[in-house]
Request: fold
Amino acid sequence: MTHPFSLSTHIRETVTDGMTILSVKTNDSLMTVVGSFHAGRMYDTAHHGAVALLTARMLGESTQMRTKKELHDTLEGMGASVSFDSDTARGRFVASGLATDMHTILALVGEMVREPRFDPDELAVMKTRVSAEILAESDDPRAIGRMLLARTLFPLGHPHHIVLPAVLSETIGHVTVDDVRTFHRAMYGRGDMILVGGGAIRHDEFVEKCRYVFEGMPIQPILSENDSIVSLHEGRRFVHEHMPKKETASVYIGHALSLSPTDPVFDALSVGIHVLGGGIFANRLNKEIREKRGLTYHIRSSIVGYQGKLHGYWFSLAMFPERVYAEGVARMLYETDIIATRGITAKELTEKKDELLGRFLTQFDNRSGLPSFVLSAYEQGVPLIHIDAYPERISTMTVPRVNDAFATHLCPEQSVIASAGDISLLARNAVQKEYVRIKKESKKA
Amino acid sequence: MPTVTHHSRTKSTKKKSSSAPVSVPGFVHVRTLGGVDEYLFKKNGLRVLLKRETFAPVATVMVTYLVGSVNEHTGQTGLAHMLEHMMFKESANFRRKDKRDINELLDKKGARLNASTWVDRTNYYETVALPFLEDAIALEADRMRHAIFDAKELASEMTVVRNEYEITRNSPERILSTDMHAAAFQAHPYHHPTIGWLSDITSYTVEKLVDFYDTYYRPDNAVVSVVGDIDPATTLRFIKTYFGVHAKSKRPIPVVLSEEPVQEGERRVSIVRPGTYDILSFMWKKPPAMHPDIPALIVLASMLGGGHASVLFRALVDTGLASDVSVSAYPFRYESGFEIMVTLAPGVAHPTVETIVMQTIDVIKKGEITETDIVRAQNMLKTAYASEAGSTASFSDMLCEAIAGGDWSLAFTIPKRIATVTREDVLTVARTYISDATKTVGQYHGQS
Reply:
């Protein structure tokens, strides 16, 4: 299969005044601009990320020149919207509106980032609102399971560590306007600001406008993240959060990785994880656990957490009710053990190559999502040329490379099993017994 | 048996995103709107929508069947959804033994494929790299009439669907929404959730499935849309080759007979479950998608809850009483709900928020809205509709939901009519549809 599509032919890049500015030219009347700063929770470990989160969210409130009402009346009067948020490493904004309004929208985004008011009353309301969002998230077994996994894999203070929702909520209650102002001054500026625009916009015009609106912001040193590699646990570790009446538990199995996305072994491991649980239907976990046995509706594997120089982790996720919990988890573990020890087959690799090469193309169907895709790649330190070279790198992948990557980087016996839901101790304790039964059954087969 | 054929484009049309309707024997061009050409395949009544979009060498093939949970009755709720799952098993020309697994054939080529069932429709779709366009069409055509149903596979898939049902029971919003619809709609089948009631999910038989399939899965009850970097004539020929084998069905398509009686007083729902937050929900009856009041109701919904400048966001979220508010006037084929859902901030009581919501609506009904409020809502909707054209997949979704509402042209006529809605139109619909007598209120109490 040929790959006539090159992302870089649709993108222009300018590096100027501490800003990396990219534009993706499409004919869409809707314009999307995304931007990010090194302002994630990893730079706010003392407050468990509460200040980082509140600072990002407060950028959507009043500025020195306009009240929140005036600001949003102006934006939404054009049909535009701007939102701010933060995650592990970055603080981000997403702005969208009609391409014909690009100048006004960018001017307002610039004002919001440069000159926030950080009004104490607005901060008080935002604290209530964010606490409520955290509470709502605490009701979701999928979110709680994911937090439990991250909290168990990574020690307190590590960028990927996520504190208990109650702890974060309490910390939010103590954040002051001064905390937010200080964080904003230190973290929101040029230096490693990345801006990506998409839609019917002209690159030169976009660059000029970005330079103009962010002019005067301090150029900050590019921060170097701490070494984020962590040791794996000795042996498997099982953690569970009991959630009454959440009849289907979310189960995560995974461990930390010590690879960067531009490491050649990363591609090999990524292909291997895809064979285990990537794509939609054609993977081992789905075939064995959903299709063959009907144990779950949802099952998949991913590699996540890569931002800047941060190393990430892999996990498989499935959802099981009590009646099949032990068998489901045991089968996940068994399939992971099998692929880690025996590797993938030549047939699987050939099929997975076709799938990944096809998906490389189909991901570009989402034109309005391209700015976020490009931003994410740049945040990971992955240049466009690396993205364009993806088909070539996948085409030349070999079975030994994938299996070597498994041998050196996939250690199921040191993984964490994190689950959340209304599952009895009896069912949880039955996992090991089920695992032994499945192993015996497979030997016989 | 379909084969993979590499799809070629002519140089002259490569960069154009629209083109004149093409002529392919067997098809009649019906109309063109919004860059979409509609064709009718005369032999079996299949309707086809084509739209060129040339940014990336991909296309989305979608088949929308005019059948959803609205076509089910007591004892077989969720059957449309179960059938959707079973359509990923086997069909005459896509057998596992021939290494042509429906699940895997296109997934292994990097397609983004899936299906979904909702109240008025069921859809199947694949976003594929162009060389696999023909395969996608061949697959959809084959399972339209040649699906194979097996009791053993049904038993296995039932547990998957049961798990899907149980996952929905983890969501307070889904639980409340289910109970709200069950209270607001007593006779009409919008009463039951699309996934069905658990006791029905566990009792389907192959016979029930086959009967449902034979009744509704047929060319004259479906629309095939293809959006992407396509050559329209070649695409129509693919459709003719594969869908053209199906004869026109002689079975009548059952009409949804039950009409919802007029509601004559407020109804209330209360749910108490272990949980960490509370929700308050409102529902009023609104007319079907084709009704001329729908654009004004959509503007009213946007004015109330679309964005940070909307009146309820300011009244509830900016004051710290709620963390989120959403308002929906989503158009459905039959009379349906105009809905408001509020996630309460910790410690805030339901009656406090209920009073504010009702006072806000009363103020609007008294005429205290400005032209600026209307223009803001219209412009927010304009960008929302523009965003739906941001991929071949989302454009296809937009067509699908309009088809489900009654006519694919709604995808273009509703946004156009929204732009002409006046302050008086909004006042009229607020006073007509938002009344105490047709209100259903739901409280979800998450208790630790």
In short: The longest helix of chain B spans residues 151-168. Chain B is about 40% helix and 20% strand. Chain B touches chain A through 77 residues (CB under 8 Å). Residues 274 and 448 of chain B are 6 Å apart (CA to CA).
